[in-house]
Amino acid sequence: MNSPLHTLAPDAPAASLAVRTGEARARIMVVDDHPIVREGLQQFLAAQPDLDLCGAAGDSAQALALLPTCRPVLVIVDIALKQESGLDLIRTLRRAEPAVKLLAMSQHDESIFAEHALRAGADGYLMKQEATSCILLAIRRILAGDVYLSDAMHRQLSRRVLGNRGVPGGPIAGLSEREFEILHLLGLGFGTRQIALKLNRSIKTIETHRASLKEKLQLGNGNELVHFAVQMTAQSGLPRAAAPPAEGGGCDPRKG
To answer: Residue 165 domain-assigned?
Structure first.
């Protein structure tokens, strides 16, 4: 993505941010299911005078266990953790630690996922394809109290507020957070019973949401809905390598 963000100097506000966070180095926690990403961010952040990686987790359970000892001021969350949604973790962290800043970071299309990440409680959204300078810029802007989005995403949201319906995202942009979450899980291969168990909702409730999704997306039946969800998953790069546990089956270990 060609963006003027690449040309900004990310180190400019570093000294003031250390003062604002109340520590010599702002404590950062990373949640990503790829070890190479966690290790890369650890090395990258270690080179910054104002930032410190206090913990790294591969899934939600590890992240929540680390939270009390890590005491981060900002958590970077991959929204597509294997076998779970990073959006769920963002909601959980926002409820558990309202003061902690949250940066959603993913390889997935920001025109579809950024707004939903913000609604879930994130303070910013960054695509992994961005330059490393953008990572620093996003972290420091969020620590300074701002919301971080790319210039293109800012323009998209502005057009939507002004009533332009022709922006990317189409009918998906009109879905509620729960509907988007269910569509996401359908695209990952989860069935109705599995979604109900995962979200701690009744099967009837999930079926009601599915009916609403079909209406909003103008789809004729359940098969078309699943096909749409899978297509959305494929187009936005969501992983489908690991299938969820079979309907009625037992527990499937999460990737760490």
So the answer is: no
Is 241 among the domain residues? no
Q: What is the pLDDT of residues 7-47, one digit of tens each?
A: 223 333 443 344 344 457 899 999 998 898 888 888 888 88
Determine contact, residues 213/172, Cβ cutoff 8 Å. no
Question: Is there a domain that residue 120 lies in?
Answer: yes
Residue 135 dihedral angles phi and psi, to the nearest 5°: -60, -45
Each residue's pLDDT tens digit, 199-209 = 788 999 999 99
74 and 26 Cβ atoms separated by less than 8 Å: yes
For residues 233 and 219, give the distance between their C-alpha atoms in angstroms, rounded to a whole number: 17
Within 8 A by CB and 6+ apart from 253, the residues are none
Q: How far apart are the first and last CA of the chain?
A: 30
Q: Rounded mean pLDDT of 84-113?
A: 86
pLDDT in tens, 140-194: 999 998 888 887 776 666 555 444 444 445 667 678 778 888 887 887 778 888 8
The CA distance from 256 to 81, in Å, is 9
Q: List strand residue ranges (DSSP E) for 108-193, in order.
A: 124-127
| E strands present in the chain | 26-31, 51-57, 74-78, 101-106, 124-127
* Parent domain of 230: 175-236
Task: Indicate the pTM of the whole model.
Answer: 0.60
Closest C-alpha among 231, 148, 247, 158 to residue 188: 231
- The domain boundary, picked from 131, 158, 185, lies at 158
